[in-house]
């Protein structure tokens, strides 16, 4: 007999994944409770730092005065919470999850999460609508005000941007702003000196971050860009098309974010060269 949580017993329970453990807890879940905080974010595959990705506890938020107090479950109480259904599990709405994590995330991590929530989702060649909008994030802040973390959320919201593909792109953008560079444009269609769209393999090229007036592009390349032959070919075609159209392309890696001196020097020189 398996006992995944106090008061719950069963045989041959699947407990290998976070979703499995949440399903095992469902018989004890209060009718007005949902899975929340980092648990909901992980189920939705939102970007979180490793320390939250590795959490063992399941977060549950109740609207009623009572909240779960058993080992393996972190109970919370919150009124005015919006909810969604993910597969067969009730979750806090994505905008509310962003607010719930304000006290667990550093400001750049909170901004990166906000970027992911309001940007389109790309996976396996498919494109899905964003989880929510910037207006949804603002409304969620208002619903919970003046709870702890509200000031932090209000400071982060103006920095949240759409058209972001990864947390590393957010980290790069925030680094440039911190070092005094103008804010780069995200995902804008590249054009040549005649105003014509730059294309590669028949598709418009949209650099990760760019300064269109100077025709300077920054392309962030994670490990998958190096290990995936198809992605590597696409990246080369994009860079060649941009350079043929007169763009300066600066390719950025995780190492550049850890030690950005050379990156910042090259960007400063590129912008100066273009006036």
Your description of this structure?
The protein is of the alpha+beta class and 275 residues long. Helices cover 39% and strands 19% of the residues. It is built from 12 helices and 15 strands. It has a 4-stranded mixed sheet with strand order 10-13-14-15, sandwiched between helices. A hairpin with a 2-residue loop joins β6 (83-86) and β7 (89-92). α5 packs across α8. The longest helix has 16 residues, at 229-244. The protein is elongated and about 70 Å long. The termini are far apart. The model has no long low-confidence stretch (mean pLDDT 93).
Which structural traits does this protein have?
single chain; 275 residues; alpha+beta; 4-stranded mixed β-sheet; 3-stranded mixed β-sheet; 39% helix; elongated
Tell me the Rg in angstroms: 22 Å
What's the end-to-end separation, in Å? 72 Å
State the helical fraction: 25-40%
So how many helices? 12
Uncertain segments of ≥5 residues (pLDDT<50)? none
Summarize the structure.
The protein has 275 residues and is an alpha+beta fold.
Topology:
Elements: E1 2-5, E2 8-10, H1 18-25, E3 33-35, H2 37-43, H3 50-53, E4 58-62, E5 73-77, E6 83-86, E7 89-92, H4 94-100, H5 107-118, E8 121-123, E9 126-128, H6 134-144, H7 150-156, H8 167-178, E10 185-186, E11 199-200, E12 203-204, E13 209-211, E14 216-220, H9 223-227, H10 229-244, E15 248-252, H11 254-258, H12 261-273
Parallel strand pairs: 4-5, 14-15
Antiparallel strand pairs: 1-2, 3-4, 6-7, 8-9, 10-13, 11-12, 13-14
